[in-house]
Amino acid sequence: MTETPSEAGARVGLVLVSHSAQVAESVLRLAVGLSGGGEVAPLRAAGGTPDGGFGTDADAIAAAAEAVDQGRGVLLLPDLGSAVLTVRSLLAEGDELPADTELLDAPFLEGAVAALVTASSGADRSAVAEAAREAYDYRKE
Amino acid sequence: MTQPSPSALTNERTVRWLVLAAEAVSREADRLTELDSPIGDADHGNNMRRGFGAVRDSLTAETPETPGAVLRQAGRLLVSKVGGASGPLYGTLLRRAGKELGDSPEVSGADLAAALRTGVDAVAQLGGAATGDKTMLDALDPAVTALRTALERGETLEAALSQAGTAADEGAAATVPIRARKGRASYLGERSEGHLDPGAASSALLLAALAEAVAQDD
């Protein structure tokens, strides 16, 4: 999508922040695959360190957040440890993130799927976040 | 005031602190990684060396004009360059302390102690940890308390920072028997006991570098 979306067509943006580039990218592909037909909400993966190792890249997170921002807010979904701490510190200390960016406190894979499906439907940021958080309540047994 | 007070943290000293910290974590990188091997993911030395190396390069290439600005720039770089949990944690420590200092060109010992306290509290909040959880806070928290107490007794900044450094060393050493409650080490339960916390060890290096930076021109 190259043109600026109209206000009506704009969606909440999502960024998947993982220690691993492969995990972030794979979860992104799975979420897109499970989100059904039609246009999908803007979604980017920010995984691993710039040298290809395991870790978190704050600059990549900020760039991804910028890229998915359509003016309806951005949700950053981290996996664990330094990904969570980096997102939290960017939100608390930084000025590099778009307005209305928040941490999405949800399971990484299940939350990503729920958030993308909900965001793609055009739901607002709090509804998208709520749908993803509900994934914590889904029991497997 | 044009003449720097003998107990002020100048811009030059702030840069020297972080350059000495970069040298210390580089020199001790293998030990930090070794400490991080049994209870972490064996990357602490490399992460700290990369992060503080970037800080040193940036500050020597272009030095911000006030101690507060130096700390904010250093903190921003640590968040960007480290890649592990120590990046946002140390980044928050320095960045929040730098924000607290604002843009005054001279910083009194009391200002420094107050700014470090703000930074340490921000680290605790970011990580959801408290002193006694076997983290960097076990070195930082007693060090900042010792600094403030010594200054309140009327000791010089150099003497107060030396006591802060001792408190950091003792705090780090005291993490050995503790069972970790935060971070990856906490998954190990009782197997995390008997190991020095790598974050507390690197925090002690940071405090020692600060004391050294101030002592050098006194």
Automatic annotation (TrEMBL), chain A:
Any one biological process term the GO annotation gives: glycerol catabolic process
Among Pfam families, the record links this protein to: EIIA-man (PF03610)
GO molecular function annotations of the record: phosphoenolpyruvate-glycerone phosphotransferase activity
Q: Which residues cross the membrane?
A: none
Q: Please list the residue ranges annotated as the PTS EIIA type-4 domain.
A: 11-141
Which organism encodes this protein?
A: Streptomyces oceani
Gene Ontology cellular-component annotations: membrane
InterPro entries per the UniProt record, alphabetical: DhaM, PTS_EIIA_man-typ, PTS_EIIA_man-typ_sf
Q: What keywords appear on the UniProt entry?
A: Transferase
Lineage runs:
Bacteria, Bacillati, Actinomycetota, Actinomycetes, Kitasatosporales
Task: Please state what the protein is called.
Answer: PTS fructose transporter subunit IIA
UniProtKB/TrEMBL annotation, chain B:
Cite the InterPro entries for this sequence: DhaK_L_YcgS (IPR012737), DhaL_dom (IPR004007), DhaL_dom_sf (IPR036117), Dihydroxyacetone_Kinase (IPR050861)
The record's listing under PROSITE patterns reads: DHAL
Name the Gene3D superfamilies for this protein: 1.25.40.340
Q: What are the recorded Gene Ontology BP terms?
A: glycerol catabolic process
Q: Please name the GO terms that the record assigns under molecular function.
A: glycerone kinase activity
- List the GO terms this entry assigns under cellular component, sorted alphabetically: cytosol
Q: Where is the DhaL domain?
A: 12-212
Lineage top rank: taxon: Bacteria
- Which keywords does UniProt give here? Kinase, Transferase
- One protein family per Pfam: Dak2
SMART domains, sorted: Dak2
Q: What is this protein called?
A: Dihydroxyacetone kinase
